[in-house]
Amino acid sequence: MPRGRYQQQQWDAREAAILDALETLSTERGFAQVTMDDLADEVGISKATVYQHFASKDAMLVSLMQQHTQQFMAWLDSTADQPPIERLQQTMHYLMEGHITPMRGLINVGRDEIVPVFHNSPDLMASHAQTLDRLIVIIQQGQAAGTITPDLAPSVIVSAMWALSNVSMQEYEPLQHDHAMPDQAVYMAQMITMFERSIQPKAG
């Protein structure tokens, strides 16, 4: 039976609450340790209601990744009036600030868990490919304009962007004892500066 407008709003709000609960609990204890009962308790609904929205946690993970990917593509489109090099600089800021993290607790999702989920979702794979294509076009435009080095393949630059955006000071605990280590904001800015310098054409 089709849902009315108010019923649809309730449905959407409840679905968003379930996904938010998954993000929160995954951050606290790890994705694998979160159960459907946990999610139901966190949201204040029955487990049967959770299953009405999602067949499994994997389905929730796909939905979360789709949401963040779509948000990222919309944000990328909003920078279309800027020069390619500036778009890449802003994209690095966006990534380093964690806006595109599929879920806050993604770091607790093992590769063996997430790769099958990703490859079993054609829509998610298509969205990911579309994101990569948009970034590659931006890089190619910058290379054509002479503001991005042609010595690096666009796919290599994109891979470097993803890799750098997943590096944080917290992942390198021994560095915390180095008094010369900058604070998080400076650290992020310097990481971005390092990336920018690496893609600029060589002088002379």
In short:
The chain is mainly alpha-helical. It is 66% helix and 0% strand. It folds into two domains: 1-54, Homeodomain-like (Arc Repressor Mutant, subunit A); 56-199, Tetracycline Repressor, domain 2 (Orthogonal Bundle), CATH 1.10.357.10.
Question: Segments where pLDDT lies below 50 for 5+ residues?
Answer: 102-108
CATH topology of the largest domain: Tetracycline Repressor, domain 2
What string gives the helices and strands in order?
HHHHHHHHH
Helix content: 55-70%
Structural category is mainly alpha
CATH architecture of the largest domain: Orthogonal Bundle
Strand content: under 5%
Kindly state the number of beta strands.
Answer: 0
What is the CATH homologous superfamily assignment of the largest domain? Tetracycline Repressor, domain 2
Largest sheet: none
State the end-to-end CA separation.
69 Å
Instruction: State mean pLDDT (0 to 100 scale).
Output: 82
- Domain tally: 2
Rg on CA atoms, Å: 20 Å
Shape: elongated
Question: What would you note in describing this structure?
Answer:
The chain has 204 residues and is mostly helical. It folds into 2 domains: 1-54, Orthogonal Bundle (Arc Repressor Mutant, subunit A); 56-199, Tetracycline Repressor, domain 2 (Orthogonal Bundle), CATH 1.10.357. It contains 9 helices and no strands. It has helices spanning 5-29, 36-43, 47-53, 57-77, 84-96, 111-119, 122-145, 154-165, 184-199. α2 crosses α3, α4 (57-77) runs parallel beside α7 (122-145) and α8 (154-165) runs antiparallel to α9. The N and C termini lie far apart (69 Å).
